[in-house]
Amino acid sequence: MNRKAIAGLMLAAALAMAALPGCGAGKEEAVKVRIGEVTRSVFYAPQYVALAEGFFKEEGLDVELQTTAGGDKTMTALLSGGVDVALVGPETSIYVYQQGADDPVLSFAQVTQTDGTFLVSRSGKPLDWNDLKGAKFLGQRKGGMPQMAGEFALKKHGIDPHADLDLIQNIDFANITAAYASGTGDYVQLFEPQASMIEQEGKGKVVASFGVESGKLPYTAFMSKQSYIEKNADTVQKFTDALQKAQTWVKEHSAEDIADAVGTYFPNTDKAILVSSIDRYKQQGSYAENPIIDEQEWNNLLDVMTSAGELKERAEHGKLVDNSFAEKAGK
């Protein structure tokens, strides 16, 4: 074989190698996206499914997840550039808007569509809402969505949270479960899996769901600064596409399957607790089936905030919600 033939074969081989997946300069690098989640909870199962099942990777995204405990801390991380996307209650974006932000925060993909907390009673007796009057109630942070939704539900049952309850609100979010387990309060408002863990320990019983009581609302959503969304529209679309895949996966799989998928994110939680927690959320329709934040749910959110005295003016749906990515993901 002459030199020209050998050179030709070598060139052909090099071109073939470059065409293979993972070879050559043509491969696109994954785009890094930093998420700050308000807390670690099975309430956000679709997010963990998107990570565990590789849906973000399929879209060419390298997602880094960090827990920034508390809505105020999560929003601070977003505004300061510590994270690109926040998973938090949209009420935080309304607070930023009310302060006259030049770069408003927009919700672009809904994850949960009900409140995620449950009323836990130390006595475990069947619930009579009037029994709460005069009781010590271990609540959530003032102005936060859990507290506002809880107050909204209590008012429906004729209870003034600030006049009828001995309301305790000076305990940090991360320490509420431990405080209740150690004996603080007759009632407490808890997310899962903490509510199921309290039941397992025999220190209380779930007697009502604030998610059922307060109705549909965009309780937790992915959001980012308007400037980030405008500069990274393709990334935001891929992110939302991955979430839609995860939401469909959650809808089509059992609580046990979901627990298996997300278990690595809850290494210290018994699988039976994970399954019961996820099942509670599935049964009451807490997991949104698509990322779209509809106007009726948004208006319910505004009603909840108004009832809590936390809304200076109604922030209209079109100003703080961008459904364009969610609508494309659905197609």
UniProtKB/TrEMBL annotation:
One matching Pfam family: NMT1
Compartment(s) where it occurs, according to its Swiss-Prot or TrEMBL record: Periplasm
SsuA/THI5-like domain: residues covered: 45-254
Organism domain of life: Bacteria
Entry-linked InterPro entries: SsuA/THI5
Chief location bin: periplasm
Coiled-coil features, chain-numbered ranges: none
Annotated Gene Ontology cellular component terms: periplasmic space
Family note: Belongs to the bacterial solute-binding protein SsuA/TauA family.
Protein name, UniProt field: ABC transporter substrate-binding protein
Organism in which the protein naturally occurs: Paenibacillus pasadenensis
